[in-house]
Amino acid sequence: MNAIRSVSLAIPTLIGVVTIVFFIMRVIPGDPILAMYGGEAANQVVIQKLRESMGLNRPLAIQYFDYLRKAVSGDLGISLRTNQPVAAEILEVFPHTLALGLGGIFIAVIVGVPLGVLASVYRGSKFDYLSMLVALVGVSMPIFWTGILLMIVFAVTLQWLPLMGAGEAGAADFVIHLILPALALGLAGAGWIARITRSSMLDVLYQDYIRTARAKGVSEWSVTFRHAFKNALPPIVTIIGVLLARLLGGAIVTEIIFARPGLGKLLVDAILQRDYPQVQATVTFFAVIVILVNVLVDISYTLLNPRVRDG
Fold this sequence. Notes:
By secondary structure, the protein is an all-alpha fold. It has a domain at 96-310: MetI-like (MetI-like fold, Orthogonal Bundle). The protein is 79% helix and 0% strand. The protein has helices spanning 2-27, 32-36, 44-53, 60-72, 86-121, 126-140, 143-157, 171-205, 208-215, 220-257, 263-272, 276-304, 306-310. Helix 5 packs antiparallel against helix 10 and helix 7 packs across helix 10 (220-257). The protein is elongated and about 85 Å long. The relative contact order is 0.15.
């Protein structure tokens, strides 16, 4: 039922995102033609002809419905900067953003889940307080600040890892260049996952069937991971899905800081140049990713939670 509801809301959500971005880009100051062809000193006759050829002189309502009509058929437009299909440019750089997002969520999971489980098992101990303090710091620090600190420590001071770029000398070089930006993304997500994991585990560890398992002499390891953790998974999976969508959005800032190619750099360049089709297509692409992730999270939650599935 949750998945069906998410799918049913996908179309109006996409239309809302496209509409908001379309009109915001045309309300903010700046002219894409002036930005690309010489500013105020450009030939006004040439500017007017370019504006007409691109359809920017038509009423906004006509531009809007024309864009929707083409978008439904899969035509997201031509970039005003490069004169290339925006869909092709998005697909060209998306693997970099996807790798960064998956790397960030991988680090968030391998750090956050064990931290949350151990904090719940040793509730009230010094380790519990210290781990939750670390999680709070991770949640509170902006991604760009974490990225700058990592660059200063590991790239500038210790010189263990490269400072910028995405790596072009093979798979190993690509992974090495991915470590710092993925850490910047993942550490913030790890704090959220640790807190949710601890809370979910505490809800389960004091249930009657856990006490019964302990009374039967089941080992603490088996009680924690075979019984408690399995039933605490649904909220953890939910926050991981939400974080994946959030980290893909956070990749925009991270890509700029670490000078990596990706959707973030593509979007920022398009905004600065008032490249309407590119901005609209890129934001719509992000919206589609978020919607797909939410649908997958709802499906997984239904599969993991028998009460929801039976209902």
